Amino acid sequence: MAEKALMASVDNPESVKVIAVSKPDSVFGRNYINNDEKMAIAMSMMKVNEQVMSRTDGLQNLDFEDNAVSELVGRQMSAMSALRSMVGFETPDAPRKPFSGWKVKIEYEALSESGSPYRSEYWFILDRDAQCVVNSFEIPLL
Questions:
Q1: Is the Cα dihedral 84, 88, 90, 91 positive or negative?
Q2: Mean pLDDT of successive 10-residue segments in the chain (142 residues)?
Q3: HSE of 26 in the Cβ direction (CA atoms, 13 Å)?
């Protein structure tokens, strides 16, 4: 289901090369991301930010004609927006929510609509029966 959803989610599905597919992991309530995953995503976003700053001289020389940088910034902003909406702020002693579904991560490489190569990890949150995608978001990778 997740691989099918990936192909429907990218701009250039014929260019997709799947690198890895995670084993399905349980989701409880709407807390899709655990603390270790939050840290890994934060580190990934930091690396993306460092590359953008390096390639644009601290945003002083932002070239809107540079599709690779523009698309990377767009994917990063989209990822941060999705993450803010999904991160739970529950106390550590809060009761565990009931099982609500599965999460599957797919790491892949592809070409953007403009032809720029990129690498990402797409997360798919599936329902209990893994029959439909409840939520999804992309994390740009370097």
A1: negative
A2: 95 97 93 84 89 86 82 86 72 82 97 93 96 94 91
A3: 5
Q: Given this model, what pLDDT does residue 115 score?
A: 92
Q: Tell how strand 117-126 and strand 133-141 pair up.
A: antiparallel
Q: Specify the pLDDT at position 137.
A: 93
Contact 100, 30 (CB under 8 A): yes
Strands (E), 1-142: 17-21, 25-28, 99-111, 117-126, 133-141
Q: Please, are residues 42 and 140 in contact by the beta-carbon 8 Å criterion?
A: no
CA distances to 3, 81, 122 from 125, in Å: 12, 16, 10
Residues 6+ apart with CB under 8 A from 76: 45, 48, 49, 52, 140
Q: What is the pTM of this model?
A: 0.84
